[in-house]
Amino acid sequence: MKPEEIEKRITDAPKPKLPAVWRSEILATANAALNTNKDQAPARPSLALWIWRELVMPLRHGWSALATLWIVLLGAQFLTSSGDSSSPRSTSNPQTVHREQQELHEQRQLLAELLDFDEQKTDQKKPALRPRSQAPSQPGSA
Q1: Does pLDDT of 128 surpass 90?
Q2: Cα–Cα distance between 81 and 107 in angstroms, integer?
């Protein structure tokens, strides 16, 4: 039997009818449910449901991409922060703190030496700083 013959038999076959009693019961139940729903005030959706329907559902691919990006960034931050010397975990070791203090002290000494050296050169070029009352008056100033 070919598919065309099967389709023709199905279309030609009589359709079963719904008993009249069932039909009247179904229609009566539907009308009663419709009348009770009309009497009730329409329920207003909550704010969370509205946000979900209006903002999240239409853009779910964008939100999932943003969430994935945040997870990747947090993972990268976690992986890179474990070896960082400025993190509080690594400075809690007393030896590390002492070494860092020594390095800071050495840097300050070097800076002080550089500034003193620079001041010695500038002292030869500039006159000594004096208060205004002791400064020599310049011609043309009143």
Answers
A1: no
A2: 26
What does the pLDDT look like over 82-106, one tens digit per residue? 655 555 555 568 888 889 999 999 9
Q: Is the distance from CB of 91 to CB of 97 less than 8 angstroms?
A: yes
Reported as a single tens digit per residue, the pLDDT across 24-53 is 899 999 888 888 766 565 667 788 888 888
Per-residue three-class SS string for the chain: CCHHHHHHHHHHCCCCCCCHHHHHHHHHHHHHHHHHHHHCCCCCCCHHHHHHHHHHCCCHHHHHHHHHHHHHHHHHHHHHHCCCCCCHHHHCCHHHHHHHHHHHHHHHHHHHHHHHHHHHHHHHHCCCCCCHHHCCCCCCCC
Cα distance between residue 51 and residue 22, in whole Å:
43
Provide the whole-model pTM: 0.28
Q: Nearest 5°: CA angle at 82, between 76 and 65?
A: 15
Number of CB atoms found within 10 A of residue 124's CB:
6
pLDDT at residue 75 greater than cutoff 90: yes
